[in-house]
Design brief:
Number of domains: 2
Number of strands: 10
Shape: globular
Helix content: 25-40%
Distance between the termini: 21 Å
Strand content: 15-25%
Radius of gyration: 19 Å
Oligomer: single chain
CATH class of the largest domain: Alpha Beta
CATH architecture of the largest domain: 3-Layer(aba) Sandwich
Length: 304
């Protein structure tokens, strides 16, 4: 049985990876001859793009910008599936702040990672909702990624983070947390993460890619159909997290796994094209990449 190492996109696993962990837990990968190692780490050795480029993993979960940047290097990547059919970034707050829509951010302080693209996205959302983005106060949390607890503690009025994880870390009941989604105001819709491989691996061993995606697709279908099994699978790599938090996160994220037609992993051309155009227009593409970098950067040809 061959070892397959998958580098996840974040410093720890979370329920967006439930299909991967369930496919390993229930033997789905093993039946395809794959021994899958699901890896998370900090960024001091480089993130998932750097690890994939060095050949230290076979598959990595990447953002589109990283895939496009690789196309200008000697080790180009190819996105072979998407984990999410919609963007996961959102503004998170609590009922006590009185914020119920993007326009309500006027006069309030929101913690946003120090990334111009993210600050601009918040400003666009406020404007799209009829508010004045100039009246929003932005706070730089540095390397810290605050969650709903930072709002509960009065450090900020709102935070920008992932809509299916950070809302559920505090004392506010999951159903009461206020989550403002950028898709709701039509700002920068996109796929969040892509399962990606090096192009040389894809050319050398396409059957491995097909097998891995087949096992992953079945894992996500099982995670969608059997909530208890998905929570149990995630409780092994996340034994330090209350299962109720895993369940709330799973319920929030699973609607992003499939297209309206029920397809898992399918990359939508209009989403990758319009998001690349949006990033290029703002100057936020990774150095050296452009709209032309989309050529050959993604494919649905290996999906089951």
């Amino acid at each position: 049985m061959s070892l397959t190492r998958v580098m996840l996109e974040y410093v720890h696993p979370w329920p967006n990876h439930a299909g991967l962990f369930l496919a390993r837990r229930n033997g789905g990968f093993a039946r395809l001859g794959l021994d899958v190692d699901l890896v998370s780490d900090g960024y001091d050795r480089g993130g998932a793009p750097e690890v994939l480029a060095r050949g230290e993993c076979d598959v990595a979960s990447l953002r589109l910008g990283h895939v496009l940047q690789s196309r200008t290097t000697g080790t180009p990547f190819v996105a072979v599936a998407t984990l999410n059919q919609r963007q996961l970034g959102a503004v998170i707050t609590t009922p006590d702040t009185g914020i119920t829509r993007f326009a309500d951010l006027e006069g309030n302080t929101i913690a946003v990672p120090p990334v111009p693209r993210l600050i601009h996205e918040v400003c666009q959302a406020v404007a799209a909702d009829g508010g004045d983005a100039d009246r929003v106060r932005f706070a730089d949390p540095g390397n810290w990624e605050p969650d709903v607890r930072a709002v509960e503690q009065g450090l900020y009025d709102a935070v920008m983070n992932v809509r299916a994880w950070e809302p559920f870390q505090g004392n506010t009941p999951p159903e009461e947390v206020v989550i403002l989604e950028f898709d709701s105001v039509g700002v920068a819709p996109h796929h969040s993460y892509f399962l990606s491989v090096r192009q040389d691996l894809l050319e050398r061993n396409p059957e491995f890619v097909r097998a891995f995606l087949a096992g992953t697709e079945r894992g996500y279908r099982e995670a969608m159909d059997d909530e208890d099994a998905a929570v149990e699978a995630m409780s092994w790599p996340m034994c330090h997290v209350n299962p109720s938090v895993l369940r709330a996160s799973l319920r929030s994220i699973r609607d992003s796994w499939f297209t309206p037609a029920g397809r898992w992993g399918q990359i939508q051309e209009h989403l990758v094209t319009t998001y690349t155009e949006w990033m290029e227009s703002g100057g936020w593409l990774e150095e050296g990449s452009s709209i032309e970098s989309l050529k050959g950067a993604w494919t649905n040809a290996f999906l089951p």
